[in-house]
């Protein structure tokens, strides 16, 4: 199974900062607290869009950051929350945390959503910190930082387009020049033994998945040659591209080839003959191909418009045929698979695994003797502290004590006056 994969960065918006403010009233020198809360930061949310078939769009945009919340304001006004950022993904996208390798979400159905990076909550303004004992606090919280992480998106590809034709007509060569797939190419029959899939992008930015299938021969529907299993694969493609060696390198008549393969498709399943089909006349760089093409078109009659002459080797005609395939896909609905067949049978699930509780903090020592504190929780507290108000700083010190950091520093031998570092903040240990 061919898998499209891409690594990207996501970050929820930071919460807005809470405000320290006081009411100003005539004749009242200092009124009560009036600083509002910050608004919440936006989430990064993935949503399934069945119109997407590949992860091609993520090749160009790899960073997704939701907006931050608005800061709190004076007069008790709260900051506005940010809008969530909605990122569209194709059905079948599996989202994996790149650090833990855990699956975050497995998105299958149209419209299904999952929060991939949570926005931070807004910081509280000083109104929230007022108590009878401290009616005018100079304390406000900064917004909580949004969640950030690297994730890997994986998509199991289902082919939109299947290349069919006799062996050695150039199916693998064609796939190799229009996609990054690298199938084996050779002049002997049945070089391709299993389907190869490649993602094709047209010049106008449309993309689809094309499968290079093993060559078919007469009797394929009864199991002759590589037979059945690959015809089953064709059944799932929306559009069939019939590749013909128009130079008749092996001496067969191109029109006979065309009829034979179509007969095989129909004998395998009536439905296959109703599938939209486009004809590629390949190897037009070789002598005799032009004459054969004229004769071929004449025999086809009205269907001649579906023939696209190309050379997979010189790359002539590729642009036009890719546009034609993309157009045909645009107007062809997906074929419903039968109940019990793969993607539909897979239960849809969005997982929110409980993330393992990490230790609140760790303490290490730098060569210069200073103590360094690390830890998600303590770093978050730090980021949410507004250091421009002494009272906020004192609150932070109390929080550190509450987490047991003072005791832990003492246990590691910290003495009065020793330097302690946390992110870019440095302070003296006071015993
Ligand atoms: N001159 C010329 N040769 C081509 C062209 N396309 C393919 N060939 C040659 O035809 C031979 C068969 O090509 P493949 O791409 O392996 O054919 P295939 O249809 O995948 O064959 P199977 O996998 O065996 O079914 C190779 O030697 C290719 O180099 C073309 O446009 N012009
Ligand atoms: Mg091949």
TrEMBL record:
Cofactor: Mg(2+)
Residue ranges of every copy of the Obg domain listed in the record: 1-158
Compartments, record wording: Cytoplasm
Keyword Metal-binding among UniProt keywords: yes
EC number(s) recorded for this UniProt protein: 3.6.5.-
Domain OCT: 353-431
Record-listed GTP binding positions: 165-172, 190-194, 212-215, 282-285, 311-313
Entry keywords, A to Z: Cytoplasm, GTP-binding, Hydrolase, Magnesium, Metal-binding, Nucleotide-binding
Leading EC class: hydrolase
Role of this protein: An essential GTPase which binds GTP, GDP and possibly (p)ppGpp with moderate affinity, with high nucleotide exchange rates and a fairly low GTP hydrolysis rate. Plays a role in control of the cell cycle, stress response, ribosome biogenesis and in those bacteria that undergo differentiation, in morphogenesis control.
Protein name: GTPase Obg
Native organism: Heyndrickxia coagulans DSM 1 = ATCC 7050
Upper lineage: Bacteria, Bacillati, Bacillota, Bacilli, Bacillales
